[in-house]
Specification:
By secondary structure, the chain is mostly helical. It contains 13 helices and no strands.
């Protein structure tokens, strides 16, 4: 029997509550940490915009690095709100959102835990040629956008109780990369510059195709590695160490009085989660 669409998109009840819980931190500190990371990303972004020329500030929205950093800032903002709403009531806003928005959040999570690594690899392996940035603000902004971005992604891989992202998400990630490629060439057509020099076909069509295919393959490899690391984290923390997701008193009371949810705000059937984890281990 084909799996339901909610399972394909990673928005089944066993998935949703895990976005707002952690095996290590209670919901309130987790939400505060996410807000702190969001604040840092927004401060960095607006500082860069404020120190750039008006032209450079406008052109920055054509760069994949900048777009993914905006994505980090907004993801941590909304995930912080979801987490604090769960800490307050035992049920997050995410769990009450319409299915399409829940699916968007799940895919958003997949971009946050994969795209930053792609940005870091491409920048330091392909684009950066040195010397080191003479101005402190330039060094700080580049470290923030091309190094700390991957650290932020690692936080979302390690700390939450999330399950591995749905493999179906890889199609959406590839689509987003294709849409960005279109944006890069629209930028050249309308503003007359290539956001990344390797996108210039004057350097050779074969070389251009190699870069495009290479980036797509790199994203697939990153997705697979992230999937594996999250699987190991779930297996280690829940199966080996027996660490349940930290919950709230309200969620625990709901579980005790109604039987509708377990202590993590999830569906009560522990068997269903055992079956799901069994499938992951196969």
């Amino acid at each position: 029997m084909a799996p339901p669409p909610t399972a394909l998109l990673g928005i089944s009840p066993n998935h949703l509550s895990r976005y707002t819980t952690s095996w290590l931190l209670p919901p309130l500190p987790l939400g505060c940490l996410r807000f702190l990371l969001s604040l840092y990303a927004f401060v960095t972004t607006f500082t860069i915009l404020g120190t750039d020329t008006p032209l450079s500030a406008r052109q920055s929205f054509s760069y994949f690095t900048v777009l993914t950093y905006w994505g980090l800032a907004f993801y941590f903002l909304f995930s912080g709100l979801h987490t604090l709403s769960y800490a307050r009531s035992g049920t997050s806003w995410l769990q009450r959102w319409p299915r399409p928005l829940q699916a968007f959040h799940a895919i958003f999570y997949s971009t946050v835990v994969t795209f930053p690594f792609l940005v870091t690899i491409v920048f330091w392996a392909v684009l950066y040629r040195g010397p080191w940035f003479p101005k402190a603000v330039d060094a700080w902004s580049n470290i923030s956008q091309h190094a700390l971005n991957s650290l932020f992604a690692l936080v979302e891989i390690v700390l939450p109780a999330t399950l591995p992202p749905a493999p179906f998400h890889l199609l959406f990630l590839a689509l987003l990369l294709a849409l960005y490629l279109a944006l890069a060439y629209i930028t050249y057509a309308t503003q007359g510059f290539y956001v990344y020099s390797f996108l210039n076909p004057a350097h050779g069509g074969g070389r251009l195709a190699g870069y495009i295919i290479g980036i797509l393959v790199a994203e697939c490899i990153i997705f697979g590695l992230v999937w594996g690391v999250i699987w190991v984290r779930v297996w280690l923390t829940e199966r080996i160490l027996g660490l349940e997701a930290k919950t709230t008193c309200r969620a625990a009371k709901k579980s005790a009085t109604t039987g509708v949810e377990d202590i993590t705000g999830r569906a009560p059937a522990r068997e269903s989660e055992d079956v799901e984890m069994g499938k992951l281990q196969q």
